[in-house]
Every structure is written in structure tokens, then in C-alpha cells.
């Protein structure tokens, strides 16, 4: 679950990924540009808030370290936003250090729309709603701002090992 | 039933007890759970139910709340309706093993998006598949309980006539709840006298039994993941804006 409405269909011709720094500077990648960046194949365990986990899943994508490399920022928070209008907030540090990717391939096949394709955020050390499906960009923020899921009652951080599912956990 | 926004304070696990069970279909039962400390909920919200084995192993699953709070012998109760998933870990236990008077841990109410607020004025379209009827029934029951005059349409997909959960109540409400329409789609076996062949829900069903986008309805779709994907795509294809189509997927996908 953790899709709140119809699955958005996004064409690769118009797809883009945008990182907007807190000073307004934008960094954009088209699909071709994303695919031309160094690719990684993380094998990770994922944890859904609806009480299931999937161990040893294989993905392919671009590390957020690569994407954030040329971005000048002093921000501490990130708000990921998606085609379809969803948003989710997370600390910027959680997107660094080889722990987060923009993923486009799952178990060797292009990521299906209902699983967040063409590309989703992959932040496996947090609950899976933080791994924004249909991701379109990230806004860097000096102040934390709850996203769509968090406004609907989900936890601001979402650590599966501390079972941080809902606000107040 | 409380109105207002979902609580931000911690939602704690608490012990509930089974006071009654009702057989709805050969594979689905309603459990009436006494919850001494219940803060109220909105139609569409769910609870998490947690089981603990003697060796400490725990399993938790989400179940939609089926209707308004009801009074039990020992205090407020909520109702959930559980459909048996073959080979499932939790649902067969709740249906076949869990006994009257026994404790179970629950927490809730949970979910702040797939909810219908009785003060809403838009016409409502409900599309349910199988046990996906449960949160939709909560909305139908709340509509009547709060005296809402908003027109409701329910389109309910089931395998066979025997699989209709809340069948008698839906028949009665379709007659007595003014402004509620109920239609069915049968996927495997239709009742005698039903026009048409059994089939999976399609564009014609959604078009015939739904509100046109011009009326700006609020639509709620709930059921197994594949069912929800299909129906939500059809609704978008018919011109309903995505933000007016709220979905709850019961199956296990990320
Ligand atoms: C928000 C929410 C509300 C829900 N409300 C209800 C409700 O009101 N009534 C209800 O009966 N269920 C509801 N569910 C589904 C419920 O949480 C469980 O997933 C379901 O009872 C199966 O659990 P299990 O432990 O028996 O099966 P598991 O041991 O989890 O699964 C066994 C096998 O069945 C598959 N499976 C899991 N769930 C389903 C399913 N729903 N349909 C078909 N196959 C499945 C699994 O992939 C697995 O292969 C809801 C789910 C969510 C996310």
C-alpha cells in the first residue's frame, strides 16, 4: 500500500529530476542525463509501514551523493516531491553517505509505475513511504516541513528499528 | 464518533477483548472488540492488530474499522471485519482460533487520508473489491448515523453472491437510506436473474454506476492492490482528477 490515489503515469520524454537548494538554485537532470551518471546496484532490505519487510532486494540507480555533489547547500532538511503531488520530508543527512538513491530498476527490470516508476527515491534505512514513489525532485530546506504522509499521521523520521510508524512514536 | 484531525500524540498499544463475533460469509467474520480507552475515529480509518506468540514472536496487521463506536456490555467497542487469506499468518488466527474474552493488542485510529468527513458536501462514489468493502461500509454507516444527505453510490465487486459481506444490511440500506445506491459486479458467479455474465470490473461498470466528473464527486477505492490499480486508472481515464480519487490498497506492495 502507501499509495493514496491513482498511480501517476510519467513519460520518460518529459521526466526530469530537480534538486532545488534553499537559495533557489536549481539542478536538473533529464532521463538521459540521469542514465549517463555513474550507476550503483544496492542490495537492501526494505520495510513497509504496513508490517511487511522484503529482504535482499536488488535495485539500480544513482546515489544521492552523486546528485548532491555539485549542490551548494547548508540546509539540514529535504522535502522530496513526486509526480502526482506527494511529498515526504527527511533530514538531508539521511540522503548522504551511500544510503539513498534515485532508483529506476528493480530486480533487473524497469521499475513499474505501481511501484513508483519511472524512478523512486530509495532510502532503505527508513520506512518505505520515505522512499518517495514517482520522485520528481528534492527541495532543500533550512527548516523541517512535514510532507503529505506525515501530515496524514505518519512519523517525521520513520526509523523501522524503533518502529516509528506514526506521529508520536 | 469523534470528528477532527487525527491525533498527534502517541497512539499506544492497548488491550482489547473480543466480546462477539458475527459470521458475514464463509470466509469473513466481524469481530466486536471492547476497547476501554477509545478516542473515537473517522470513517475510513484503521487499527493495527498485534498478536504475540508464547515465545515472544509478534505479528501485526492493519484492519479497517467497520463502523461507528458501538456500546458493549463493558464499555465502548469497535468492529473490524476480517477476510481469511489462505495461508495467511494473522487472518486465519483471528477467524478460527481467537476466542471470546481473549485479549489482543490494538492501536489506533490510524490513517489520515482515506477518510470521509460527514461534513463533506460532495457526492460520494465508493468502489470496493472483496474485503475492501469494510472502510466503505464505515462511511455508509456514518452517513446514516450523522444524518448526512450527501448522495452515495457503492459499486461492490465480489466473486460470487456468497462472498458479499454485509449483504443483508446493504439490501436494507439500499431501500431505507435515502440517496444510497448499491450495485454489484460478480467476477466468477452471478446470482440468478442478474443481467450479464460474470466479469472483472471494467470501464462500463465504473461509468454506469459512478458519478460523472462534472459533479466533482469524492471517490474512494479499496480492495486488493490489483483491483485498486485497475479502478483508479479507469477513473482517471474517465476524467476524474487524481486528487479526488482516494485509494486504500490491502495487498502487500510497496
Ligand atoms: C490499511 C489497511 C486496511 C486493511 N483492512 C482490512 C480489513 O478491513 N479486512 C481484511 O480482511 N483485511 C484488511 N487488510 C489486509 C490485512 O492487513 C492483512 O494483509 C490480511 O488480513 C492478510 O494478513 P495475513 O497475516 O492473514 O496474511 P499474510 O501472512 O500477511 O500473507 C499470506 C499470503 O497472502 C498474501 N496476501 C496478503 N494480504 C492479502 C490480501 N489482502 N489479499 C490477498 N492476498 C494477500 C501475501 O502476499 C502472502 O502471500 C488491510 C490492510 C491495510 C494495509
TrEMBL record, chain B:
It comes from the Bacteria. One of its GO terms (molecular function) is 2 iron, 2 sulfur cluster binding. Keywords: 2Fe-2S, Iron, Iron-sulfur, Metal-binding. InterPro entries: Cbr1-like_FAD-bd_dom, FAD-bd_FR_type, Flavoprot_Pyr_Nucl_cyt_Rdtase, FNR_nucleotide-bd, MRET, OxRdtase_FAD/NAD-bd, Riboflavin_synthase-like_b-brl. Residues 11-116 form the FAD-binding FR-type domain. Pfam families: FAD_binding_6 (PF00970), NAD_binding_1 (PF00175). Its cofactor is FAD. This is Oxidoreductase.
Amino acid at each position: 500500500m502507501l499509495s493514496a490515489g491513482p498511480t501517476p503515469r510519467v513519460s520518460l520524454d518529459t521526466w526530469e529530476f530537480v534538486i532545488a537548494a534553499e537559495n533557489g538554485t536549481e539542478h536538473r537532470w533529464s532521463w538521459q542525463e540521469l542514465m549517463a551518471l555513474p550507476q550503483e546496484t544496492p542490495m537492501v532490505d526494505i520495510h513497509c509501514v504496513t508490517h511487511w519487510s522484503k529482504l535482499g532486494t536488488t535495485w539500480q540507480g544513482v546515489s544521492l551523493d552523486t546528485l548532491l555533489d555539485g549542490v551548494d547547500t547548508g540546509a539540514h532538511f529535504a522535502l522530496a516531491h513526486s509526480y502526482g503531488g506527494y511529498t515526504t520530508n527527511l533530514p538531508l543527512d539521511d540522503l548522504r553517505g551511500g544510503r539513498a538513491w534515485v532508483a529506476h530498476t528493480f530486480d533487473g527490470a524497469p521499475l513499474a509505475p505501481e511501484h513508483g516508476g519511472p524512478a523512486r527515491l530509495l532510502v532503505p534505512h527508513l520506512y518505505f513511504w520515505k522512499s518517495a514513489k514517482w520522485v520528481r525532485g528534492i527541495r532543500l530546506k533550512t527548516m523541517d516541513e512535514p510532507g503529505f504522509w506525515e501530515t496524514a499521521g505518519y512519523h517525521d523520521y520513520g526509523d523501522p528499528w524503533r518502529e516509528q510508524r506514526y506521529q508520536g512514536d | 464518533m469523534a470528528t477532527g484531525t487525527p491525533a498527534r500524540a502517541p497512539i499506544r498499544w492497548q488491550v482489547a477483548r473480543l466480546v462477539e463475533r458475527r459470521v458475514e460469509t464463509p470466509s469473513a467474520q466481524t469481530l466486536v472488540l471492547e476497547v476501554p480507552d477509545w478516542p473515537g475515529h473517522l470513517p475510513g480509518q484503521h487499527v493495527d492488530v498485534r498478536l504475540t506468540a508464547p515465545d515472544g514472536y509478534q505479528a501485526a496487521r492493519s484492519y479497517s474499522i467497520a463502523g461507528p463506536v458501538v456500546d458493549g456490555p463493558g464499555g465502548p467497542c469497535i468492529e473490524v471485519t476480517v477476510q481469511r487469506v489462505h495461508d495467511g499468518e494473522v487472518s486465519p488466527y483471528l477467524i478460527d482460533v481467537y476466542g471470546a474474552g481473549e485479549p489482543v493488542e490494538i492501536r489506533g485510529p490510524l490513517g489520515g487520508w482515506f477518510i470521509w468527513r460527514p461534513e463533506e458536501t460532495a457526492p460520494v462514489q465508493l468502489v470496493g473489491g472483496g474485503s475492501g468493502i469494510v472502510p466503505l461500509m464505515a462511511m455508509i454507516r456514518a452517513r446514516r448515523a450523522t444524518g448526512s444527505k450527501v448522495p452515495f453510490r457503492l459499486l461492490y465487486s465480489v466473486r460470487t453472491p456468497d462472498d458479499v459481506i454485509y449483504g443483508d444490511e446493504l439490501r436494507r440500506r439500499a431501500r431505507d437510506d435515502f440517496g444510497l445506491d448499491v450495485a454489484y459486479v460478480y467476477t466468477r458467479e452471478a446470482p440468478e436473474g442478474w443481467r450479464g455474465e460474470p466479469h472483472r470490473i471494467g470501464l462500463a461498470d465504473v461509468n454506469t454506476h459512478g458519478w460523472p466528473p462534472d459533479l466533482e464527486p469524492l471517490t474512494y477505492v479499496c480492495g486488493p492492490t490489483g483491483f485498486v490499480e485497475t479502478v483508479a486508472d479507469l477513473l482517471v481515464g474517465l476524467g476524474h482528477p487524481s486528487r479526488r480519487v482516494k485509494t486504500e490498497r490491502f495487498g502487500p506492495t510497496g
